[in-house]
Amino acid sequence: MKPKYAAQAGTFESSDLIILIEPLEDNSGRKIELESAVMLQYGDSLKKIVNEMLDLYEMTDIHLIIKDKGALEPVVRARLETAIERSVNPQIF
Q: What is the pTM of this model?
C-alpha cells in the first residue's frame, strides 16, 4: 500500500509522539526519520515496532517522520495506525 495524502497523528506532549506521513514517488522505498527523548534506551525497540507496522500494512514509498517524547508501545502502535489510515483514506477521520 502506498500513502496517497500527507497525514499526521499524535501530539508533542510528554509520553506521546507525533507522526507525520508524506507520500513519495513510486519505487522510492521507505524514508524514516526518528527522534526520541529515550533513543538510547528504547530506540531499537521503537524502530522494530515502526517497521513491523509498516510491514503489516505493506507500506511503500513513504516518508515517515517520528518525534517521540517517551510514548509506550501501545501509543506508538495506535498513533502510527491512525496516521497510516489517514494517509490512505482521510475521509474516515
A: 0.91
